[in-house]
Design brief:
It contains 2 helices and 8 strands; from the N terminus they run βββββαβαββ. It has 82 residues and is α+β, with helices and mostly antiparallel strands. It is globular, with a radius of gyration of 12 Å.
Length: 82
Amino acid sequence: MSQLDVIATRGAAVLIRVDRDHGRILDRRHGRLFPPQTLDSALARGQWKAFTGDTAEISQALATATEVTTDAQTPGLLSPAA
């Protein structure tokens, strides 16, 4: 992702567009980056507000975030990537 496209914020979480229909949630408080999901699905869950801030802070948080993946052993559970 060459240019960061942060489209919404909810508390410490931000929703980052990764392609036309998908985004990833970055939890800045816990330093976790969640797997891609459809933007419609993400926006339907919670009270998102349009992001109007500077993306520099988001870029820094993204650079140090832990990737969260789905746990292959237990479908539906999320776990930090190894």
